[in-house]
Each structure stands twice: as C-alpha cells, then as structure tokens.
Amino acid sequence: MSDPSTAPPLTRASVEAAHRLIAGYVHETPVVTSSTLSRLASTQRTPQDLAGTPWAGRAPAAPVLRLYFKCENLQRVGAFKARGAFHALERLKLDPAWDPAKGVVTHSSGNHAQALALAARTNGIPAHIVMPRISAPAKIAATAGYGANIIFSGSTSVEREAVTARVVAETGARLVPPYDHPDIILGQGTAGLELLSQATSLIPFPHKTLSAIITPLGGGGLLSGVALACSTTSTHVFGAEPSYEGADDGRRGYYASPFPSRIEAVSSLTVADGLRTPVGRIPFSVITAPRPGAAAVDTEAAQASKEQVGHGGAGQGANPFGRMVAGIYSVSEDEIGAALRLVYERMKLVVEPSAVVGLAVALYNEDFRAMVEREAGADGWDLGLIFSGGNVNLDSLGKLFGKTEQASGT
C-alpha cells in the first residue's frame, strides 16, 4: 500500500471522502431494531444473575437502552472488511508508482482475505493471499472462489509475515494489511458514518442522534474508523472484546497506568475468532487520542475510574479520559454465546460470534450498564451496535450452542 504518511488525515472528513470513493462497490447495509432485545437490555438483572461474576454482591444496574443494529453481516463477503479493502484498492489505484499487474498481497485467515480477494477481482488485479495451513476449509474455499492465489504458511504471525515478505519480493505485489493502515481505517469508518445517518429516522422524538455506538475490537480498524466518523458529533464510541485468555488486550492497554500502552501479542482461542489479534499500532493511537473538543480531563476522576476497572471498563462518567474512544469493555465466552443465541432466535439473523460482543456488553456488562444508568437515568440511551460479520462455521456453531444449553441447564 501507499506510505501511511501520504494517506489522508485521520479525520471525519476523510471518512466522508472514503465513503464517496467506495459507494459503488459496497452495500449500505440496513439498520434494524428489536423491541425484544431492547427490552432485555433495559431489564434489571437479579442478584442471582450476578453470582459468580465480577459484580457478585453489587446492586444490579437498571439502564434504559434502545438498540439499533447495523447489519454488516449482510455486507459483501459477509463482513465490514469489504469497506476497507475496496477503499485501500481505490486509493492504491491513484498511486502512479504502483503497477496493477503486480497485484496485491495480504496475510489473513478470515474476512480480510475474502474482502481483498473480491476487491482485487472486481478491479481485474491479481491477489496473493497468505493463509495459515490450519485455516478453516470453508474460508480457504471462499477466498479461492474470489480468484485469489492462495499461499499457505505456518500459523504464527512470524511465519505468516515471512511468507508474505517472500511473496512481495518475488512478485512486486503491494501489501494491504488487515487493519494497521490509514486507508483501511478510513474505509471501515464508513460503517459508522452510515449508522449515524440511518438511525436518525428510527430514534424516537425528542432524541435526535445516537447516544453511543459499540463496535467489536480486534485489530482496531473498525473501532478507530467509527471513532473518527463520530469525532465531531455528540455520540460516544466504545469498544467490546472477549475476556477469554487475554483477548481483551485493547481494554488492558487502554487502562494501563500511568499512560495507555499497546499490548503487542495475544494468544487466545476465544470463540470470537475474529478478535484474537492484538490492536494495531495506528488504530491504538486513534483509540487513545484526545477527542476534539473534549472537556479537560479531571485527573482525579480519571484515576478513580482507572482504579475501578475490572471485568469491564471505566468506572466514572461516559468518557472520563476525554479520548476518541470513551471506554472498552469485555465479556465472557458464556455471555458471547448467550448473546449469539438471542440474535439467532429473536432476530433471525446469521451473525458470527465476534459480531455480538457489543450486544453482550449491553446485556451483561454491569460496569457499562451502571454507567448508562448514571449518565442517562430514565431518559436512557439510543445505542448503536455493529454486527461486524456473518461468516460462521455451522458445525462450530452447533457445538457452541450445545455448550450454552449445558451452561444454562436447558
């Protein structure tokens, strides 16, 4: 790809420009509501519900939440990743030093692989995709189906990057990373831009705009892009991660003392397999940057908030640090499974586990729920949630639902 230093500035205006650039290539996916899930999110949990959780013994929160779901599971290739891939290629086509005949290359075992393969095929450009040998056969087949040349590698990031470097040296192809580049971030941010606009007609009077948006957090391209899209609005932006085996690296790095500190490695087999990667360098810098126009940070309140961080996120106020992303919250495997089941049974939508971590935060994370109750009271929040993708292995899904049935005793 182009040198990040020559990319457009990381601003809302650049997200708007990205939206215009990719308009003919991606879907404006629908925003839907669910009265059932809004009611469940607004229902106070019982002390028994909190037993065995980090909030055991605490009075359950009673927030009022109206939920709006951006269905990127209905996007091309079944995931928001199409936005960043098409934007990256459109930007690359403007680079006079790039030879399209040499193509593009990336390393991915998931949605970015399929997204770049589709974007390349659409533009008549060769795509070389480095995939771990242990990748799911369905994902390998889908990527090949979009016309990509697949090169297999070992499973570690070091092995994948070594093979990718070899492909670049042999072919002259340009690297298009999954998330750690401004062009990718700006493309992903267009999902937030659309959500803000689409939700306006659904929000009940006298409210005018979304109070907040939660996005899943893996490499951070989506979260940082949505934060940019919302940076000149009153809408707060939050990240959601799995807590299993340290997959909540973004949350831990965000709340590190005395300053945010990016965690560079993650080794987790969370069911939310799209979120097993550490947050990228550029996304993390956006996530933790000061929000334009944010009030001066109350140092004592921010420190008190940091000290209260446990399974969830900030303890005082919606954005105690005055950052682009107001907070990051985490959820357990059981909570992800329960949220996934609700979406399948109540909304009749096919989504992947990674897509529902934001919903799980709204339903089960008492730190987040208590914060909404404090901030909004009976007036409540209009909360946007991005279903990031719907590429799911049905065999694995059956096993997951079997586990959630056993856990709930059904």
TrEMBL record:
Q: Which InterPro entries match?
A: Ser/Thr_deHydtase_PyrdxlP-BS (IPR000634), TrpB-like_PALP (IPR001926), TrpB-like_PALP_sf (IPR036052)
- Database matches in Gene3D superfamilies: 3.40.50.1100
User: What is the annotated signal peptide range for this record?
Assistant: none
* Molecular function terms from GO: ATP binding; D-serine ammonia-lyase activity; L-serine ammonia-lyase activity; magnesium ion binding; pyridoxal phosphate binding; serine racemase activity; threonine racemase activity
Show the PROSITE patterns listed in the entry.
DEHYDRATASE_SER_THR
A biological process (GO) of this protein is:
amino acid metabolic process
Q: Which cofactor does it need?
A: pyridoxal 5'-phosphate; Mn(2+); Mg(2+); Ca(2+)
**Domain Tryptophan synthase beta chain-like PALP, residue spans:** 64-303
- What keywords appear on the UniProt entry? Lyase, Magnesium, Pyridoxal phosphate
Q: Name one Pfam family in it.
A: PALP
Q: Which family does it belong to?
A: Belongs to the serine/threonine dehydratase family.
Q: What is this protein called?
A: Tryptophan synthase beta subunit-like PLP-dependent enzyme
